[in-house]
């Protein structure tokens, strides 16, 4: 910016006092300060916008680099999986040929045994009912479901009747 020393500012102030006059000088100084502040804010906003655009460009570059690296890693993993699956398939066919006596080589499919579904035999109702009633009462397990209004009516003192 401009390089103003104390002597230059004092000279400008003396000339302004003579030219403008002592009555209007405070109002002019206030207006100049206001305009100078606006100019500084405008310059700061422009700098911030330029910095944001630079950071956005850097983030876009970083994003493209990351996407390229992820794509390369995905392709490498895909190649390895394909190579491993083909090697496993060839080993499987070789062992199937030896096991079936060449039936797999003739085009016949090997039967794959599938286990039958067995129910886990978990009956939570039975487990819940196996707890003794005295234990449930002592530990506050609710055995009968009641609505909130029924619970309030149950524990209301006798003779008070319904509220109105």
Q: What would you note in describing this structure?
A:
The model has no long low-confidence stretch (mean pLDDT 83). Helices cover 67% and strands 0% of the residues. By secondary structure, it is mainly α. It contains five helices and no strands. The chain has helices at residues 6-20, 25-100, 124-129, 133-138, 148-154. It has a domain at 1-60. 0% of the residues are buried. Keywords: Cell inner membrane, Cell membrane, Membrane, Protein transport, Translocation, Transmembrane, Transmembrane helix, Transport. This is Sec-independent protein translocase protein TatB. Pfam families: TatA_B_E.
Brief synopsis:
The chain is mainly alpha-helical.
Which SSEs are present, and which pair or pack?
Blueprint: H1 6-20, H2 25-100, H3 124-129, H4 133-138, H5 148-154
Family: Belongs to the TatB family.
InterPro entries: TatA/B/E, TatB
Protein name: Sec-independent protein translocase protein TatB
Entry keywords:
mainly alpha, 67% helix, single chain, 164 residues
What share of residues are in beta strands?
A: under 5%
What summary fits the major beta sheet? Answer: none
What is the averaged pLDDT score?
Answer: 83
Q: Sum up the overall morphology in one term.
A: flat
Number of strands: 0
- Determine the number of helices (DSSP H or I, runs of at least 4 residues): 5
């Amino acid at each position: 910016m401009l390089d103003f020393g104390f002597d230059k500012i004092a000279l400008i102030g003396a000339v302004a006092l003579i030219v403008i006059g002592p009555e209007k000088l405070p109002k002019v100084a206030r207006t100049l300060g206001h305009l100078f502040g606006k100019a500084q804010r405008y310059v700061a906003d422009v700098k911030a916008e330029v910095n944001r655009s630079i950071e956005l460009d850097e983030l876009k570059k970083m994003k493209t680099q990351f996407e390229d690296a992820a794509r390369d890693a995905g392709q490498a993993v895909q190649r390895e999986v394909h190579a491993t699956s083909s090697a496993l398939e060839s080993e499987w066919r070789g062992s199937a040929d030896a096991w079936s006596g060449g039936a797999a080589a003739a085009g016949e499919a090997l039967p794959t045994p599938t286990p039958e579904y067995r129910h886990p035999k978990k009956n939570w109702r039975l487990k819940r009912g196996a707890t003794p009633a005295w234990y449930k009462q002592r530990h506050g397990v609710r055995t009968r479901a009641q609505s909130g209004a029924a619970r309030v009516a149950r524990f209301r003192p006798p003779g008070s009747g319904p509220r109105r």
